[in-house]
Amino acid sequence: MNSSLNKKYISNFVIVGGSILLLISFGIRHSSGLYLVPISNHLQTGREVFGFAVAIQFLLIGIGSPLFGAMSDKYGSGKASLSGVILVLIGLFWMAHVNTSFDIIASQAIFGLGAAGCGTAVVLGAVGKTVKEQHRTLSLGIVMAAGSLGQFILVPFAGFLIEVSNWSSSILYLTLIASVMIIFCYALNYSGKSDSSSQVSDQTLKDALKEAFKSKSYNLLTIGFFVCGFHVAFVATHLPAYLDDISLPSWIGSWSLALIGLFNIFGTLIFARLGDRMSKKNLLVVLYSLRSILFIIFIIVPKNEITILIFAALLGVLWLATVPLTSGIISVVFGVKYMSMLYGFTFLSHQFGSFLGSWFGGRLYDMYGSYDLMWWLCVLLGFASAAMHIPIIEKAVPRLSYQS
């Protein structure tokens, strides 16, 4: 009885710690788009420079995810996340004092690498190793929902700070908030101390990679996740500027991103719950298809405060609900021993998509003075990703079947 209570306590402790890490890191990351106009004006550059800098942030999050994931699998999630938080603080402090294009690009690179350490690869891996399989997808959804709550809270708060002080001071305040994450890294030290993670496996890290990349299903899942990153980065980085271009009030930008975060809490929890009962890959087919349909509707309807906020709420339901489903498929197919690293490589694809979504948004805007082409690219890629998920086989590899 006491042993059962201890395992439940450990699981809850890890979930709470991981939730706080994602709440703060996601909230700050998704505030980036609010700084596109003020920092571009400060540096006297076009939007491509800032868009490229944020694209580098996304790319370094992707590159860092399998590295921190492997570090987490080998040395512990607590150490990996603490290293990431330190880099986040350095990147934010530098960002608050940028004076050249190099400054903004370098600060975003350091911030992005750090965000990988306290982001989804490490946190989801820690939670996945700790909770029981029958509750795993829902638990992954809970920590992702916490990240969305951070977006709902911190994005409008960052917008408020910009209004009452200035963009540079607001980043320093965010740096102070980010320092709180140091405390919660400790909770991840207890990850992997449940029955689900104690299953013996003599598989090496190299063998795990070889097994995954030989799997057609893993490769399709990884390529499809690229599209999620493209969508999320483009919207998060450029939606506030797009709304400014069509002369909507300045508060619409921050609150539309906040609404995306708020409604993503419900979407993530709903789809995560469904993922414990239904086919995860079929749910992903539905998600990506609905995104494309929503983008088409957004393109053709008149733009005003009401339609923008409705769009943001609906997009929020579909925003990051892909994450617990995608990571859940990985844990089902390959087990949890190397889940952080394998999800890290899949997330790297997501961040390549984020890199292109952020950069192309600024590049195409500077070329054509419009975001129209980017919205249609989002439509086409969403349907393409839905098609890629259809052939995925959602069952454990023979190695796990033999062990059981």
Give a short synopsis of this structure.
This protein has helices at 2-29, 36-43, 47-75, 77-95, 101-117, 120-130, 136-164, 167-178, 181-184, 205-213, 216-245, 250-275, 280-300, 305-318, 322-334, 339-368, 372-389, 398-403. The chain is mainly alpha-helical.
**Tertiary shape:** globular
What's the structural domain tally? Answer: 1
Q: Identify the CATH architecture.
A: Up-down Bundle
Portion in helices: over 70%
Main beta sheet: none
Rg, Å, rounded: 20 Å
- By CATH, the topology is Growth Hormone, Chain: A
The first-level CATH class is given as: Mainly Alpha
Task: State the fourth-level CATH superfamily.
Answer: MFS general substrate transporter like domains
What structural category do the secondary elements indicate?
mainly alpha
The overall average pLDDT, rounded, is 87
Calculate the terminal CA-CA distance, rounded to whole Å. Answer: 25 Å
Continuous helix count: 18
**β content, as a range?**
under 5%
Low-pLDDT sequence parts: 194-198
Explain what the structure shows.
With 404 residues, the protein is mainly alpha-helical. It has one domain: Growth Hormone, Chain: A (Up-down Bundle), CATH 1.20.1250.20. The chain is 80% helix and 0% strand. It has 18 helices and no strands. The chain has helices at residues 2-29, 36-43, 47-75, 77-95, 101-117, 120-130, 136-164, 167-178, 181-184, 205-213, 216-245, 250-275, 280-300, 305-318, 322-334, 339-368, 372-389, 398-403. α12 (250-275) runs parallel beside α15. The radius of gyration is 20 Å and the shape is globular.
